[in-house]
Specification:
heterodimer; A: alpha/beta; seven-stranded mixed beta sheet; four-stranded antiparallel beta sheet; 15 strands; globular; B: alpha/beta; three-stranded antiparallel beta sheet; 13 helices; 35% helix
């Protein structure tokens, strides 16, 4: 029997010590008629056999590493330096629990403190907590936090249509139990925030939008604040390496998907929910926080702090039910941010920016293709703002985008996300993502392939 | 353990140092508009070797399962096979995109589909969803399912959930997040749900009863013998029963919770089904349900049509609780683990977990009082106030000096000075013997040299930290 140390003679000795004749006697409290069911699981495999089975299954996915990859839409293919998995997979990090005993968890605690510090600088907030399940749940908990910060007195949240559609669905699921009205408006952040009224506790703005568009977050902050509402921004952390952070633009709460920071796409999880805020809101913040502390001889150490917010202390009065989070994904982001550092992260973001704009120019030159969301689909289309984007942009296609995507994917060029997956009717739009992983040759191949496939 | 103070990564920074190696631009540069461009971020600048040493040294300041016994009650800190890590990092999983499309994701969808089926079989459930990312996320899903079921029957008023006082804090907190009200039920002298109090609560709650959340075995490590009767009473009162599977490590292969009346339940894949805890996660909280509740499960889930696998959302789903499909990497680990164990292996796993806990208890209960005299399951709760002025905290800290991670302390709340011990099935008899010797030695020291306990730990990089001061003036970020 794998993974067990007890031999038959160990078992006998242990049973004798306990004073029972068999292991079965230990389960005498369990209803007898229901005891020892036949589960019908397949017979056990050896390590070698299970690896073969799983490798065969894994090979039936299209892996980004074996393709020209232009699909993002919430899960991003970015470079992960070798030291990130090498260090994060050290058993002392990997097999430790939540650091409840600080004296024997200083490694985890200091790493969290470093993550909190680096992430707060990146997002431009005073504080970032030690993780949520993903960007969507971080955004949802940010919404509940904003609701609580208004003392439950305000009921309305204005949500920009440009928030990721899956995040909007999660917002609805989380908000359903509270007296919260989610008012989704088809406007960019600055337009949406102008609709904040005295009943509005927050405006939820994407930076950038699902369609790639970068809105005016500073203007949104001014409008939201003028109405006494908070601005909750959903941000791309890689973009914050090059463009102004949401915090410096006036966001009160920032949620972000941190997968891009050193975590693989892994078919959508584990990801990393980042949640940051101003210092004024910290006691309403859900999740773990690590703070600096000292011992009696004046040595610096780190502890879980402000735990009076949390479920294990406050039970039904806690600000959230979150307990297990994404500790290891956060550690990977911590090592990634340290490894990229000031200049590296900027370089990654510049590569994304330049390559995305290069790709957009090539694709726009393909007959029948155009860059920018389709008329009528553009939030705030009436205002003639330029379409500004970072690493993702919408391409209008002469043939249905789903067809293009399937055809090209079979040839190993994954051109992006057909928007019809989320927006029925928008079947001639493709959301293209270009990161530092895409070479010039692959970008040229994309443009050529789009041309061939639509000819 | 590394005792030396380790500078913060910012303190290792020196302008001009670099670790990242990135390709030179192969496309023309496009200027960033001035109104968008940001200035300095404030990230450190450190070389690669310094970073490798930094994080390696930090790791050496942790106790971990890979280095010692970590008997945290209720956390199931067992050994997690390395093959699970290797399997989860295969390029076909690691570099799989959640929106690649079903045609290009057949392997991942098949794995999810199979795992859903295996986990349903373990609990006796008709259907399940792997969307929840953790135990508490599974609880939230489950109570939302309960609420949705009542609503589907026009029963808007059913908003009270009964929660035993031994429950994890996440239970009542999950009720609040689902818009439900938690009402506490006391435990009886045997450590189970107090049946008189339950009857009274059911009568008082009446048509407001949504259901009951129960952890069985509970956080005292005791199996509630009245489980069938409890479920029957709750059902008769119009409620549903939520099973918190945090302690499934005692029951897998022994009992299918659905067989005794549980309607909806989560298990923590990172506990029972073997994903290392990672210093706080990620986990996964599979939630299983009976046929009546299956339509309300969170989605999407994996489905099979002919030979093809696809995504599907249950018809009356409570909706999406996370982007994409759950913590897939954790699912791969659980899949590998289940495939290696099979039904017989799971049963052996639970049996050994229970054997180890009972054995350890038999070695130490003479010195550490155990309030409930019944046979325990996979963990037991003792008390650590061994002598005048010696508390459980002191025992825990002294254990650290003797090379063991302490058990969970001061939980469950209903046992004063609780010391909650879960050795798990993967520990050897020798390790349990050593741990028991350490506990007994400490029990002696509590009487002969209590100062030793109160001063502990002394073998760690820092001594006891002033948590009160840390919370009063929180320093949550490095400032230069």
């Amino acid at each position: 029997m794998p993974f067990l140390a007890a031999t038959e003679s160990d078992r006998e000795a242990m049973l004798a010590r306990i004073g029972v004749g068999s292991v079965g006697e230990l389960f005498s409290d369990v209803p007898e008629a229901a005891r020892y069911p036949e589960l019908g699981l397949p017979p056990p495999l050896s390590e070698l056999e299970v690896l073969r089975e799983v490798e065969a299954m894994a090979a039936r996915n299209l892996a980004a590493s074996r393709s020209a990859w232009f699909l993002g839409a919430g899960a991003y293919y970015h470079f992960i330096p070798a030291l990130v998995p090498a260090l994060a997979s050290r058993g002392e990090f990997l097999t430790a629990y939540t650091p409840y005993q600080p004296e024997v968890s200083q490694g985890t605690l200091q790493a969290i403190f470093e993550y909190q510090s680096m992430a707060a600088r990146l997002l431009g907030t005073d504080v970032v907590n030690a993780s949520h399940y993903d960007g969507a749940t971080a955004l949802a908990e940010g919404l509940l936090m904003a609701h609580a910060a208004a003392g439950g007195q305000r009921r309305r949240a204005v949500v920009c249509a440009g928030v990721h559609p899956e995040y909007k669905a999660v917002l609805s699921s989380y908000a359903a139990a509270f007296p919260i009205r989610l008012d989704e408006v088809d406007l960019p952040p600055e337009g949406a925030a102008a609709l904040a009224d005295p009943d509005t506790f927050c405006v939820v703005a994407p930076y950038p939008g699902f369609d790639g568009a970068i809105g005016d977050i500073a203007a949104a902050a001014r409008s939201a604040h003028a109405a006494g509402a908070l601005l909750l921004v959903q941000a791309d952390p890689i973009m914050c390496g090059l463009l102004k952070s949401p915090g410096e633009l006036g966001a009160d709460i920032v949620a972000a998907e941190g997968q891009s920071l050193g975590n693989p796409m892994s078919f959508g999880g584990p990801f990393l929910g980042m949640l940051g805020s101003t210092a004024a809101l910290v006691r309403k913040m859900p999740g773990r926080l690590v703070g600096q502390a000292g011992d009696s001889s004046g040595r610096r150490g780190f502890v879980l702090t402000l735990t009076a917010r949390e479920q294990h202390i406050r039970r039904e009065k806690a600000v959230s039910n979150i307990c297990s989070n994404q500790g290891l994904s956060m550690l990977q982001a911590c090592i990634y941010l340290a490894a990229m550092g000031e200049t590296g992260l900027r370089k990654v973001a510049e590569l994304c920016w330049n390559k995305a704009h290069f790709a957009a120019s090539l694709v726009a030159a393909v007959p029948g293709f155009a860059v920018g969301p389709g008329a009528g689909a553009v939030p705030g289309a009436s205002s003639p703002r330029p379409y500004r984007f970072f690493k993702e942009f919408v391409v209008r296609t002469p043939v249905p985008a789903e067809e293009l995507s399937a055809k090209l994917s079979r040839r190993g060029v994954v051109p992006g996300l057909p928007l019809s997956r989320y927006y029925p009717g928008r079947d001639h739009e493709l959301l293209v993502c270009v990161t530092e992983m895409c070479t010039r040759e692959q970008i040229e191949l994309l443009a050529r392939s789009l041309e061939e496939a639509s000819a | 353990m590394n005792l030396k103070e380790e500078p913060l990564v910012f303190e290792l920074s020196s302008p001009g140092r670099e670790c990242a190696s990135l390709p030179e631009p192969d496309v023309p540069a496009v200027p960033v508009p001035a109104d968008l461009a940001r200035g300095r971020i404030g990230l450190p600048e450190v070389d690669e070797l310094s970073l490798v040493r930094h994080f390696t040294r930090l790791s050496q300041k942790n106790y971990s399962v890979d280095t010692q016994l970590y008997p945290l009650g209720s956390c199931t800190m067992k050994y997690n096979p390395k093959v699970c890590e290797q399997a989860a990092s295969l390029p076909g999983w690691r570099d799989a995109h959640p929106l690649a499309g079903e045609e290009f994701s057949q392997g991942a969808l098949e794995l999810i589909w199979r795992l859903q089926a295996y986990l349903c079989a373990v609990g006796g459930f008709a259907a399940g969803s792997l969307q929840p990312a953790a135990g508490a996320h599974g609880e939230l899903s489950g109570v939302l399912v309960i609420r949705a079921w009542h609503r589907s029957r026009g029963d808007e008023a059913r908003r009270v959930i009964l929660v035993p006082d031994s429950a994890h804090g996440t239970n009542p907190a999950s009720c609040t997040m689902a818009g439900l009200r938690a009402r506490t039920i006391p435990s009886d002298a045997e450590g189970g749900v107090d049946m008189d109090a339950l009857a009274a609560a059911l009568a008082e709650t009446g048509a407001e009863l949504a259901g009951l959340m129960i952890t069985n075995p509970n956080t005292l490590g005791l199996f509630d013998r009245n489980i069938e009767e409890i479920c029957r009473l709750v059902h008769a009162a119009g409620g549903l029963v939520y099973g918190d599977g945090a302690n499934m490590n005692a029951l897998a292969g022994i009992l299918r919770p659905a067989d005794v009346g549980i309607d909806v339940m989560h298990y923590n894949l990172h506990k029972t089904f073997s994903t290392p805890h990672g210093g706080g996660g990620p986990g996964a909280g599979f939630v299983g349900a009976t046929a009546a509740l299956a339509p309300f499960l969170p989605g999407p889930v994996a489905a099979k049509e002919g030979e093809r696998f696809r995504l599907s959302t249950p018809e009356s789903s409570i909706g999406r609780l996370k982007s994409f499909y759950g913590n897939f990497g954790v699912m791969v680990r659980a899949y590998v683990y289940l495939r290696m164990l099979g039904g017989e292996g799971l049963r052996r796993m639970s049996e050994t977990a229970v054997l180890n806990a009972n054995y350890l208890r038999s070695l130490v209960e003479g010195a550490y009082p155990v309030k409930y005299k019944r046979r325990c399951m996979h963990e037991f709760v003792a008390q650590g106030n061994l002598a005048e002025g010696v508390h459980t905290l002191d025992v825990a800290k002294r254990l650290i000096d003797l090379g063991f991670h302490p058990p969970t302390i001061y939980f469950p709340l209903i046992v004063p000075e609780a010391l909650m011990v879960e050795p798990t099935e993967t520990e050897s008899k020798e390790t349990l013997d050593e741990f028991a010797r350490a506990l007994l030695e400490i029990a002696d020291e509590a009487k002969t040299n209590p100062g030793l306990l109160r001063a502990a730990p002394v073998t760690t990089p820092v001594g006891r930290l002033d948590e009160v001061a840390a919370a009063r003036n929180p320093v949550l970020c490095f400032r230069d």
